[in-house]
Specification:
The chain has helices at residues 36-45, 47-60, 96-113, 133-150, 164-181, and strands spanning 8-12, 22-27, 69-72, 80-85, 118-121, 156-161. By secondary structure, the chain is an alpha/beta fold. Strands 1-6-5-2-4-3 form a 6-stranded mixed sheet, with helices on both faces. Strand 5, helix 4 (133-150) and strand 6 (156-161) form a beta-alpha-beta unit. Bound molecules: adenosine-5'-diphosphate (ADP).
């Protein structure tokens, strides 16, 4: 038994109000902003975020699903935003879980290599992208716990979940996962 579960917390709330080293954005491959949490982060950060995203896209063309890039956080209280495009749900047979796990792992690895210690995640892909929350939550939590188990450099990961149903689904999945570890 290690202390990785103690470094993961679930909260209900709006991720744009978080004060953490980096907020993770459920982005799209063009880093273009949009609806849901992506739109909320862009509004809260201000136009400097869109400009930095546009400069990245000019350099790399597009950000593939499951990959991650980092920008400053503009007017938000957090220092950085890590952008990762989640998979669109296509029924489960199109590698969605592998891609979703990659989003969490790549975001954590980028935070670690950038010297960051605290992160806040939304529930990637479970809004407009249609990934069922009861399937996304166990995969997301398992991937984060595995990473924390191997990497002491990340001190705290918080999932900031916007609505009651999502929060309760993550809570149930976390209890099941911790029971497995114990
Ligand atoms: P995706 O396109 O990856 O599905 P969405 O933004 O549509 O992303 O939804 C992902 C999750 O983010 C959903 O659970 C949605 O309710 C939630 N969400 C929306 N706005 C916020 C916010 N301000 N803070 C945290 N979570 C949010």
């Amino acid at each position: 038994m290690n202390n990785c579960a103690a470094r993961l917390r679930l909260e209900k709330g709006d991720i744009t109000f978080e004060k953490t080293d980096a907020v993770v954005n459920a982005a799209n491959c063009r880093l273009a902003g949009g609806g849901g949490v992506d739109g909320a982060i862009h509004r809260a950060a201000g136009p400097a975020l869109a400009a930095e995203c546009a400069a990245i896209i000019k350099r790399i063309g597009r950000l593939e699903t499951g990959k991650a890039v980092i920008t400053a956080a503009g007017g938000m209280k957090s220092r950085f935003v890590i952008h990762t495009p989640g998979p669109v749900w296509k029924g489960g047979g199109a590698g969605e879980e592998t891609l979703l796990r990659s989003c969490y792992r790549e975001s954590l690895a980028l935070a670690l290599s950038s010297g960051l210690k605290t992160l806040a995640f939304p529930s990637i892909s479970t809004g407009v992208y249609g990934y069922p929350t009861e399937l996304a939550a166990p995969a997301a939590l398992d991937e984060v716990l595995r990473f924390l188990n191997k990497n002491a450099g990340i001190e705290l990961v918080r999932f900031v979940l916007y609505d009651e149903d999502t929060f309760m689904t993550y809570e149930k999945a976390l209890k099941a996962n911790v029971n497995t570890i114990a």
